[in-house]
Design goal:
- With about 230 residues, the chain is an alpha+beta fold.
- The protein is about 50% helix and about 15% strand.
- Helix 1 crosses helix 2.
- The longest helix has 22 residues.
- It is globular and about 50 Å long.
Length: about 230
């Protein structure tokens, strides 16, 4: 029997992909390449891949930030609506790409994304710790909701800030507008709130992993200081 280890399984499914199969495939190919560049080798446990059913599959090392995928996908110029499921847990040993891997976390991610389709949920996250998972169930849906409300121009600006890490003055120069205009755009797009939400979700997920893996004791209602979730 293969020796099991731990990881984070992330499934990203293009909503209604059959209406534009070629476009969905092109989008997922570009997103896969972007995410493989975004995550360092130390955080990728397998090569990312997508299925013929237009589902991206990602396998990350424990402690990685699984919310990078949904953020970058939503802020791409060619963005398509997606639903996501991310699960921390046991995975079977292996060396192939994600679509050739298996284990408890893969099965759990499959179950959750299928239930998300039925419930029309866009983002579900599970760490194995009931306290952190309850927080994630309340907070995680806000990420796709906020991202889905962005206009094309706001999406372009938000990507420069949240993905590329540019200062507002540099964003203004890149977009050919004034810094004041960028500030107004950022306020209307809730860019600061998006950044805080991303930081908070990642922190809660890491805490949940640590508790579920027995690395730290659960503290009711507490989240590790410095995660941004308070």
């Amino acid at each position: 029997m293969p020796v099991a280890s731990r990881g984070i399984v992330v499934f990203g499914d293009v909503v209604d992909s059959r209406r534009g199969a070629a476009r969905s495939t092109g989008f997922l190919r570009a997103l896969r390449d972007e995410l493989e560049d975004a995550y360092p080798d130390s955080q990728r446990l397998a090569r990312f891949a997508f299925t013929q059913g237009d589902e991206l599959q990602i396998l990350l090392a424990p402690g990685s930030d699984p919310f990078t995928g949904p953020l970058r996908a939503a802020l791409r110029e060619d963005s398509l609506p997606m639903r996501w499921a991310m699960v921390a847990g046991h995975i079977d040993a292996g060396s192939g790409p994600t679509i050739e891997r298996t284990g408890e976390a893969f099965l759990a991610a499959r179950d959750r994304i299928e239930r998300a389709k039925v419930r029309r949920e866009r983002l579900v996250a599970h760490t194995g710790d009931p306290g952190c998972d309850a927080l994630l169930a309340d907070l995680a849906p806000a990420l796709p909701a906020l991202l889905g409300d962005l206009t094309d121009r706001q999406r372009e600006m938000a990507r420069l800030v949240l993905v590329d890490g540019l200062r507002r003055a540099d964003v203004a120069e890149r977009l050919g507008v004034s810094r004041a205009t960028v500030s107004v755009m950022a306020e209307r797009a809730h860019v600061r709130e998006l950044g805080g939400l991303m930081e908070g979700l990642a922190g809660i997920f890491r805490d949940g992993e640590a508790v579920a893996n027995g690395e730290v004791a659960a503290v009711p209602g507490a989240v590790t200081a410095g995660t941004g979730a308070r």
